[in-house]
Structure formats: structure tokens, C-alpha cells
Amino acid sequence: MNSIKIFAPATVANVSCGFDALGFAINTIGDEMVLTKTTEKGVKISKIEGAELTFDSNKNAASVVVKAMLDKVNADFGIDMQLFKKVKPGSGLGSSASSAAGAAFATNELLGKPFTKLELTEFARLGEKIACGSPIADNVAAAIYGGFILVKSYEPLEIVKLPVPNELWVAVIHPQIEVKTEDARNVLKPNISIADAVKQSANLAGLISGLYTNDYQLISRSLVDVIAEPHRKKLIPLFDKVKQTGLQNGALGIGISGSGPTIFGLCKGEKSANNVANAMKNVYQNSTIDFNIYISKVNTEGVKII
Amino acid sequence: MNSIKIFAPATVANVSCGFDALGFAINTIGDEMVLTKTTEKGVKISKIEGAELTFDSNKNAASVVVKAMLDKVNADFGIDMQLFKKVKPGSGLGSSASSAAGAAFATNELLGKPFTKLELTEFARLGEKIACGSPIADNVAAAIYGGFILVKSYEPLEIVKLPVPNELWVAVIHPQIEVKTEDARNVLKPNISIADAVKQSANLAGLISGLYTNDYQLISRSLVDVIAEPHRKKLIPLFDKVKQTGLQNGALGIGISGSGPTIFGLCKGEKSANNVANAMKNVYQNSTIDFNIYISKVNTEGVKII
Fold this sequence. Notes:
The structure is a homodimer.
Chain A (H helix, E strand, L loop, with lengths): L2 E11 L8 E17 L3 E8 L13 H10 L5 E7 L10 H16 L6 H16 L5 H8 L2 E7 L2 E6 L5 E8 L5 H6 L4 E3 H20 L2 H7 L6 H4 L6 H10 L4 E4 L6 E6 L1 H16 L5 E9 L4 E2 L1
Helix pairs in contact in A: 1-2, 1-3, 2-3, 2-4, 3-4, 6-7, 9-10
């Protein structure tokens, strides 16, 4: 294989009750990338479309991953990379993770698949570190594994792939405002009460149980965030209104995707996802804020060759 | 039915990663109770064996439950209660919960089963409030439902019954020292870092996943407590030594049962539970501290008629 074209899904991290531990992948939005072997060693970014990102291969979230992998196996070839960004940077949909995960997957294919998914996740975290300052794993793991994933631990890194009930759909709306990851971090308090920690933990446990038993109502009752949402929602105009109307229109739960500003609504079935998307859309249509909106089945396969 | 004799299992709450949210029931130790209808209304405690507890039916963890249930349905009979305590008060094995859960179950049978398990749990919490000052649900729910239970939320009370892998056994050792629930509470800090909350939460999520998939190694890696154990273990002499030897001898995990001083070891299979029990026993045999020790399959049926 000399060249590969891949689709790397956008991802929703945190998922209300799973702060810094849970993520899932989306079918209908994701970066596309073409990676081609070159005789010249090293990594070259020859094209970036859809976002203004650096061509410096030491500073781009995708190319640092490719470079680390080529170095690791002492590859006798280099890679040319073309990046078609569909996941907007700063959207809260795992934009850098999509590119980093896609780069890890594609490079592994060109190398003859020497690495496991867990190892690819480790490599992709290097891209997150470049992009966000921190090698977080929830988005990249969701993009690589597909479906719902749990970051069980960081030392050592352990990813648990969770089942996805067949009718689980998602509506996501991305209001075109900027929420800096740094601001989203700073708005959180460093400590929380044990009581709140127990609540969050029990909701995550309830969600996991609901995923294993296809219990949509249990999933719904578990999609509660007492850690991040109460603080971060202030950074997202009209969040409360979107949440209220989303729930009134049948969403299982509405929450902030990653550190925002994208808002996700988990739904049972395509029809419900459409209803919820329309309801959320109406809120921003009656404002001055532009937005993008998507509905999708929860992606279960992760990065794939296209 | 005029009279009923029941077995109400002892329970392990918290289970390392499930602080204030998780519990499971034990087969080989539990209170026995005989409840008999009387023409005279109200509740009378005619016998208590095995512990020095009050015969005042307004202050006993079992009789307050019976009384509340009889009052609720405006019963035209009373109940005489005999209590054979096998679960020692202050052991950390849910002694009051065993009596309260047994009382709820037995009274429901004598009334013709008007109440659901969730309602019985609500009634049994009244006993916990009398005994511990707080209407906690983890022990009583585990005793009533059997198996592993998750207290998903308190308002409203929601209990999720979790699956129990078939080879899951437990070794419990009760060193004969007193740990007051109040001290066990006071030793905890009221706030924890978000980082620790995420770790605890991810471990609970891992444990839940392991229970659904019969993944004993995932269960093992998830039995980690960063909230309570680091503080409470100081109240239990030789805890570190017991934990170390238990793990060395094959336990999936070792932790504090409830607020202690009982230490539990979850194990895969009876033979492993025996090995772990022997190893833990040796630690206290070489000390001046008396102890009781039990091994058991994890109980899956809860309170039962005997």
C-alpha cells in the first residue's frame, strides 16, 4: 500500500456524566486525510483544506503523530499528508483528535499494521498534546475505537470499548462562537464536594449499565453533569434554552460536547434525533449566532478507509 | 401466612471504587429473624440474641421499619419480632441494614406483598436512619435485591441491579476492633480534587463494565479507592499488610467493607477465596487482635425465607 485515504470521525467527549473519562464517535462528520509514502524520509504536509492550521510538521496535531510512528519503527520511507478538515477547530467536537487519530490509523496501515489500537491511541495523544497542551485520550480513543469508550486509567493507559445500543442517535449543534479550552478549564473549580463526586460517579455507572442493557430510559436518567456543565454553560449563549427545548422534544439527554461550544443531544432513533435537531436549531435561528447542525447514528467503527 | 422466618444477608458497601453508591450481599453470614402476626396492633420485640440492642420498638433499626409499614397500610394486626443477630454491629458488614432489610422483606410477606423492592428499600432506610443517623441505601438495597447494586440516585431513589459473574467469591475478615461510623466519616475530607473524582468514577465505570462482561481482570484493575481508603485505612490496624498479602495470594482486589473495620477480598473462585482468607487470617493471628473470617459466593437473591 502506497497511499491511503481515510475518514476520521468527530467525537463527543465527557458526555455529561463522564467528565474526562467518556467519549463517543459520530458518523456524519469527520476529517478526511490522504497519506502517501514518499522516498524522502520525514513528514510533509502538502495540503490543508477547511481550516487555517500550520504546515510546520513539528507543530501540527496530525503530522507529529506520523513522525513519532515513523521514528518508532525507523521507517525507510517518509509520508506526504493532505488534510481535509471538516471538524472545525475549537468546536468541541474533537477537531485535533480527529486529525491525530486519522494520522495514527493511516500511518499504521502504510506501515503494515504493527501497532494495536491502544498503541495508536498513545501516538494520537501526542497530537492532542501539541494542539491542546495536554495528552488527553477521550476524543482520540473514541475516534480510533469507534462507539462509546471509557478511559479507565492513564497510568497505564487503559481503554474500555463499551457497547452501543442500536437505536442510539445524536444531534449536535455547533454555535459559531469561540470557547477557548483554557477558559473552559479555568471556569471549573479544582475541587468538588464528595457528595457531587458520588452523584457524578453514580450517573456514569448508570449510563454504563444502560449501554450494556439497551435501557434508553436509564441512559436518559444518567445523562446528568454536576461537575462541568453548571460552570461551562455560562460560556455558551442560549445553552439552557437549547437544553430545555431538546429535552421537551424527546432527547434522552442534552449536554456540552467536550469543552463546548457544541451541544449534543442523545436520542433514541433517527426521527427523534431530527425532532431534537430542529428544536435546537430554532433557538439559534431566532438569535444572531450562526451554527452548524448534524444528526448521526453513533459511529461504531472509528477511523476507516474510504 | 401468620409467621415467617427469614435470612437477611450481610453486605459489603462502597466496594473500593463505589463509595456511597455500590454494595453487594454475602451468602454465608446474615441475620435471622422470626416475625409473627399478633392480634394486638403495633410492634413488639420479644427476643434479641447475638447483640445488645434496644427492645424499644421506636429505637430499633428493625422494628421502626415494621412499624412504618404496618402504619402505611393501616394493618389490622400487629407483629412480634425475634431477632437473631449474626452480623455484628459496628463490623462494617451492614449489621443494621441486615435487620432493617429483613424486617422490610418479612413484613411485606405477612402483609401479602403490597410493596416493590424499591419501596422495601425506602422503608429499610428508616432503620438505617435510626441506627446510623443517615438513611443510606447501599447496604439495605444490597440486602433486599441481592447481588451487586448501584444506588443510581437518591432523589428519587433509584437502584440498579447489576449482574454477578458466576465465579465471584469474597473473603471477609472482621478484626474485633471498633471503628465508629462517625470517626470513619470525620477522617474524610469534605472536598476532593476533580482529578481524583475522575479516577474514582472511571474505576467504578470499569468495574460495572467488568461485571457485565465477566471480565475478572478488568474487575481487578478497577477495585481502586482514591477517596476513602487512603484516609480510613489508618483506623484499621494492619490494613496495608492484609491488603498486600491478599493481593499476593490472588485476590482480585482488597478493600474496606463499608466504613470498616471489616476488610473484604473479592476473588475468582472458591479456592482463591480460601487462599486469600488464609493469608489475611495469618496477619491477625500474628497479632493480639481477635477476628472473625468468612468466605462466600456473592449472594444473588437477597433476603430469603428459611
